[in-house]
Amino acid sequence: MEPVVTQTNKCSGGPPGPTSAERVVTLLAAADSLTVTTGEAREEFAGLHSLDAVGRLLLWAPAHSCVTQVLDATGGDAKACIEITDVAAAAVRDRVRARLTAHGWLSLMHRDECYGTPELLLELDHVQLTERGRVTVLTPDELVRADVDPLAVQEADLLLHLADAHPEAIDQLTRLVHPDVLQSATRVLPLALDRYGIVLRVERLSGHRDVRLPFPHRAVDAVSAQRGLGALLAEAARRARRCRAQH
């Protein structure tokens, strides 16, 4: 798969896009569900996990969990693997943006007094992030030092609103994309949005190309992300005026 093309100037004072560690902690924060595999058991946990301050993954098992039964049978702990699939909100071609696999030791801590569900703890050994055909292995220490993207939970809604309610804005943003990338394009849709900027997917008859348009400044929330998009749209409008003036 082709690498992301970054166009326009990068964000001031930092990289043009998130690090692998930032992507991992953001995926963990935003994921609605994950799959836990240990021994012979494989089970999906929906909305029942969080990453603590020292890089451990906390999980709340559903009632009658087969994973919990395995842990009970093995004395309360076992090697485990956790998987998350990151899927684009917009209906782009090839919607899987990334896959995360976390390996470690899963322990049964105690049963929640209010709901009667077991609380599980995964002591992470390493995390594998597969993104754009590239595999990156990260340690728990790297994750502890990384910040969750402030748009993590809102990203899907913001992208869908942009794609459904403001297709003219997407069209205008393509003025910031190099003409060579747009050659033979059949459709352009928003693929990702984070504190650093927006990524557009340029689909062609054969394959696709992703283009990152960095904000002038990093966003700290949804409001500042909207300001960043506004700045990109203003720059696109300026380029359109210059182009008309030249012709």
TrEMBL record:
InterPro entries per record? DUF2470, Haem_oxidase_HugZ-like_sf
Q: Which domain of life is it from?
A: Bacteria
| DUF2470 domain segment(s) | 156-226
Name the UniProt record assigns to this protein: DUF2470 domain-containing protein
